[in-house]
Amino acid sequence: MPWNVRPTADLDEFRSAVGAIGHYFGGWPADEEAAQRFSSNLPLERMHAAFDGDRIVGGAGAFPFELTVPGGTVRCGGVTVVGVLPTHRRRGILTAMMRAQLEDIRERGEAIAALWASEEVIYRRYGYGLASLSCEMALPNGYAGLREPPDERATVRLVPLTESRDVFAAIFDRVRLRTPGMFGRTETWWETRNLPDPPERRQGGGEKNALVLELGGEPAGYALYRIHTKFEAGGAAGHVDVIEAVADGPVATRELWRVLLDMDWKATLKAYLLPIDHALVHQLSYPRRMQLRVGDGLWVRLVDVGAALSARTYAGDGPVVLELDDAFLPENAGRWRIAAGTAERTDDEADLALGVEELGSVYLGGFGFGDLVRAGVVRELQDGGAARADAVFRTDAPKPWCPEIF
Ligand SMILES: CC(C)(COP(=O)(O)OP(=O)(O)OC[C@H]1O[C@@H](n2cnc3c(N)ncnc32)[C@H](O)[C@@H]1OP(=O)(O)O)[C@@H](O)C(=O)NCCC(=O)NCCS
Fold first, then answer.
1. Which strand (E) or helix (H) includes residue 93?
2. Tens digit of pLDDT per residue, the chain (406 long)?
3. Atom of ligand 1 at shortest distance to CA of 90?
4. Whose CA is nearest to atom 20 of ligand 1?
5. Most C-beta atoms within 10 A of its C-beta, which of 125, 167, 211, 248?
6. Would you call 54 helix, strand, or coil by DSSP?
7. How far apart are CA 100 and CA 49, in angstroms?
8. Pocket of ligand 1, candidates 57, 63, 90, 406: which has the most ligand atoms within 8 Å of its Cβ, to mutate?
């Protein structure tokens, strides 16, 4: 059955379309005000609704993001709130929504799309590739030592959430512009998503705290954290949750984390959404005790392959030629030659054959072609093809990091 999918036209439609995934969250958005607040970051026309007759049974949204890629930024559809009501699952509605959404993203001139997957099995079929890894840590209190002594220029102050936005945003922007995988935040985004602290989101913890680290009086890092206090058998058994910690440079990173690591009355320091190459691994005396758990992070889809490949920078001039398969958006398929920072169609012989999802995996620098050849998911057509391609795509940027699920 061909489903009718189109952007929402008013707040009622928007609320119903968002409500498809909201159903699984227990009935969100609860009221018009909550829908209005969500739409302050997601314009109505960026929310697609799937209809069964005149009833909305599915929804898929895309935030208008600016995403950092190696050497610059690129406009990106930040795919979010994808859901189909339980009454209509497994009838092709997600596929219909993904098609309409990717066409829309392309028409808007966004060369790529990115998302966090609720289940990692869902999105490869639509051309998304695993582009970054994301880590959680749970460090027991006795092992929170750092190798280096404190830097005497470092000072820390707690700030009210309501006064933290501008100083946080300035630090965040410096870091995000050099870190692939991070997206820009508007003032509204900070005010509606990062800083609010509604009691129903505290999950038994205390209030959300904000602190700023300064080096020589200049703001260089910030952290948002929540304390979960608990005592058992006369000792601290609770934990501190680091919601977000962003620091500009190695000393700022170490001194910011020192404050979190040193916090009293906790048995464990927990942190989420950390990059795989986090500096703490090298800064802690007991890195094994971080108990790092690694999972999938951002998934990336090249929507307009020529524009996306030409939007990032490269370490080598190339050329390298890729034979690309893209079953869901066949207009991207064919042979692409990347030379001197530009991607063009070509009839030259290809070095490698791969699917568009594998190109999504290497695009931000999270993985190399060699990794994917060794995994058997990219095929080398010429000897040394993967090594040549890796020499071109190599980047000195940090590993891709997206510190926030959207
Ligand atoms: C995930 C969800 C959106 C899928 O919607 P749907 O309309 O049932 O999906 P479709 O019928 O279009 O399925 C498309 C394909 O994906 C597969 N698929 C979809 N969801 C899947 C899942 N969770 N696990 C395994 N396969 C899945 C289908 O089997 C189908 O495969 P096929 O093309 O080989 O036949 C829906 O089940 C849902 O809303 N789940 C809860 C919310 C959620 O997880 N949203 C995703 C947020 S990132």
1. helix 93-107
2. 789 999 999 999 999 999 999 999 999 999 999 999 999 999 999 999 999 999 999 999 999 999 999 999 999 999 999 999 999 999 999 999 999 999 999 999 999 999 999 999 999 999 999 999 999 999 999 999 999 999 999 999 999 999 999 999 999 999 999 999 999 999 999 999 999 999 989 999 999 999 999 999 999 999 999 999 999 999 999 999 999 999 999 999 999 999 999 999 999 999 999 999 999 999 999 999 999 999 999 999 999 999 999 999 999 999 999 999 999 999 999 999 999 999 999 999 999 999 999 999 999 999 999 999 999 999 999 999 999 999 999 999 999 999 999 9
3. 11
4. 122
5. 248
6. coil
7. 10
8. 90
Name the residues annotated as catalytic.
123, 406
Which residue among 121, 122, 130 has the greatest number of ligand 1 atoms within 8 angstroms of its CB, and so is best to mutate? 122
CB 285 within 8 A of CB 261: no
Residue bearing tokens 């490949």: 309
Ligand 1 pocket, residue 119 CB under 6 Å: yes
Phi, psi angles (nearest 5°) of residue 326: -145, 90
Q: Which atom of ligand 1 is nearest to the CA of 80?
A: 48
